[in-house]
Amino acid sequence: MKAHLVIASLAGTLLLAGCQTGQKLDTPAAALTSPTKTTAKVVALPRAEMPVDVAVYDFPDLTGQAKPNDSFAEYSRAVTQGGADILIDVLKKTGEGNWFRVVERSGLKNLVQERTLIENTQKSYGQKSGLPPVRFAGIILQGGIVGYDSNELTGGAGARYLGIGGDMQYRSDVVTVSLRAVSVQTGEILASTTTTKQIFSVQVKGSAYKFATANELLEIELGQARNDPGALAVREGIELAVVSLAVDGVKQGLWHLRDRSQEADFIASFEKKYRDMPLSGS
Prior knowledge:
By secondary structure, the protein is an alpha/beta fold. It has one domain (36-157, 164-275): Rossmann fold, CATH 3.40.50. The chain has helices at residues 2-19, 39-43, 83-93, 108-124, 230-252, 263-275; strands at residues 52-55, 100-103, 139-161, 164-183, 189-211, 217-227. It has a 6-stranded mixed sheet with strand order 2-1-3-4-5-6. A hairpin with a 5-residue loop joins strand 5 (189-211) and strand 6. The radius of gyration is 27 Å and the shape is elongated.
């Protein structure tokens, strides 16, 4: 009899939850992208002597990897397809926006079409074109998301006693980002860097079962899974790549800090943290 009461209570709870699905969900409001562990380093870079004019045409997913799935064939991509947009956003925030002057290239067709429309309209009405020339870049930033290794690390643990217990499973994937600076005048690759970032997934489950009567078994199971956002992992890898490229450029004399006396410490602090140890993310 007790088992029937418990089952009826659970059924009533599920029915009540189903009736509430038509109501407005109390979901969090939209928010700006959360900062990563590397965002503060990007924003806080020492001011450059002058902004570097750069162009970004594309930053593709070169991995060809689909999302890991052990149950069925998954055709969704493992990483974001908007790498170029993330890279542009990172460049615009580097050193509080004082390091790179980014020119539009991924949407160049639309830009040219709009400028042509303005010029033709002004010409039709006997007006002189007041458009300045399109700004060009001295450096093209190229690269992409070059690697995605799933199940790089897996494991778990669990225990059960008298029908009550739980288990935890985790998995680590690794995303690899490559970025290089190419001179427009000579085609020479001026600087190149590669970064990696781990993506962790954790699943925790708990369960309990008990014989309510001699022939009736009551079983309860709860669980929760948490995955690192893949887009944020890619962004963190790109952020570190931009910082690394900025350091390499200063080291080679391609560009300089406004206060050149800080350059030695700027290079040394970066190399001490990232070059003197295996790079396994930020």
